[in-house]
Amino acid sequence: MRVMGVDPGLTRCGLSVVESGRGRSVVALDVDVVRTPSDAPLAQRLLAISDAVEHWLDTHRPDVVAIERVFSQHNVSTVMGTAQAGGVVALAAARRAIDVHFHTPSEVKAAVTGNGAADKAQVTTMITKILALQAKPTPADAADALALAICHCWRAPMLARMAAAEALAAKQRHAYTTKLAAQAKGAKMKAAR
């Protein structure tokens, strides 16, 4: 499975592509950070991110895109910019019928370090080990994008099992309600005789 990991942001948007193998084997194919000037108009910054993401999607052809889920931070404008950048990425993937999954920062940290409260240095160190990189990916946005992609690779089988279980439960719920409705109709017809 080929996964594109995205650490969204207006000033720095981390992009990565990894490919999973057997078990927990993961290989990094590409990583970069898209930078936009903070003094540029918002629309131009989003366009620059969109152009880069579209190029990556067309070049790498991922099976799925994993994006960091935005949580509230102290700075509302930072949250808004991060959410807008993530939305641009999700839209570009949706236009290509590529599945998009969102992962929280704590899910990502727990997946790659075993600790949902790990700091950026711990995440970067583990990414370097997991991918057997010669040097630590910099800046942190690059490491975070790789961590998102790895997290999705490792969580995808569980997510697929959960989706299958939910689909089976919905099917069984439908069959049960249909059976109850048929029984109620039969009882009503019997009472009417």
Automatic annotation (TrEMBL):
Mg(2+) 1 binds at residues 7, 141. PROSITE patterns: RUVC. The active site is at 7, 68, 141. GO terms for biological process: DNA recombination; DNA repair. It catalyses: Endonucleolytic cleavage at a junction such as a reciprocal single-stranded crossover between two homologous DNA duplexes (Holliday junction). Belongs to the RuvC family. This is Crossover junction endodeoxyribonuclease RuvC. It comes from Mycobacterium numidiamassiliense.
